[in-house]
Design goal:
18% strand, 7-stranded parallel β-sheet, 2 domains, Rossmann fold
Length: 287
């Protein structure tokens, strides 16, 4: 199988690439800053949609296209809604339209639980969208426009994906290790999953038949404050070094819930939120 990963050097894309390659698939990825020595990495800047399309066309035919690139920072989308919309919506839809018109591949959009408002837990895949952030609204629009393109479109929604390279987790761990304090939201829920679980889900949608929408999150929810306290225990820092913070203190909204009704996979078992964080911290402390 020949797979294109748009955004193949990010957290999800790079791990997905490695997994697909190890299972014998041919993988081409895109990046804004490719390695000139690696011919399987295409130089693509989604702010220039026309050039991006031409670069992807020149790479030949693909069986599957995974749309994993985008501006995922809620603050960055709020600060520059025009550019982020071009990347998160216009570029994704244009690539999908062009590829389907030429080769009819399966097209997979990586989406987010932020298309929902966080008022309910274990949200159904068919629940109406209710985004409260510009990022969530952009992902919601991308989903809606892509789904008009037919049955070859697949949506994969995740809650927060974490790894031993996640900037926030690593930053908190290092600060607490040095005896510094960190501030963490007590009123924003997360339902974290490991990057390996996320990659496993995407890979199964790549290879197998699936419903139009696939969802995956932890089995429960924790606050950022609870995650920070677990990180403090690994850093052997006192609990008092984790300071409580409200979302409104930095201009954000409280998010009571974040979990999704997960698609059932026989070989991928959802973890609890704390299990996911433990898994990542074990890797961080063994580096």
């Amino acid at each position: 199988m020949r797979v294109l990963i748009v955004g193949g050097t990010g957290l999800l894309g790079s791990n997905l690439r490695s997994s697909l390659l190890s299972n014998g698939h041919e993988v081409v990825v895109t990046s804004r800053q490719p390695d000139a020595k690696d011919k399987s990495v295409l130089s693509v800047n989604l702010e220039n949609i026309a050039d991006s399309l031409q670069t992807i066309i020149s790479a030949g035919k693909f069986d599957v296209v995974v749309l994993s690139a985008g501006v995922s920072s809620i603050r960055a989308c709020k600060n520059d809604p025009k550019t982020s919309s071009q990347i998160n919506v216009d570029a994704q839809v244009s690539i999908a339209q062009d590829q389907i018109s030429r080769n009819s591949p399966k097209v997979i959009l990586i989406s987010t639980n932020r298309i929902f408002d966080g008022s309910s837990e274990q949200v159904s895949p068919n629940a109406p969208h209710s985004p409260t952030t510009i990022y969530g609204e952009q992902k919601s629009r991308a989903e809606g426009q892509l789904r008009t393109l037919g049955d070859s479109i697949k949506i994969v929604r995740f809650s927060k994906v974490i790894s031993e390279h996640s900037e926030l987790v690593v930053d908190w761990y290092n600060k607490l290790l040095r005896g510094e304090t960190v501030s963490a939201f007590v009123d924003v829920a997360i339902s974290p999953i490991t990057v390996s679980s996320a990659v496993g889900v995407i890979e199964r949608v790549v290879i197998n038949e699936s419903e139009t929408v696939t969802q995956f999150s932890a089995t429960d929810e924790i606050s950022f404050f609870e995650m920070a306290n677990l990180i403090a225990s690994y850093a052997k820092a006192p609990a008092t070094n984790v300071l409580k913070q409200l979302a409104k203190d930095v201009g954000d909204n409280a998010v009571p819930h974040s979990s999704l009704e997960s698609t059932v996979f026989s070989s991928i078992k959802p973890m609890s939120s704390l299990q996911s964080v433990h898994h990542v911290l074990e890797k961080i402390t063994s580096l």
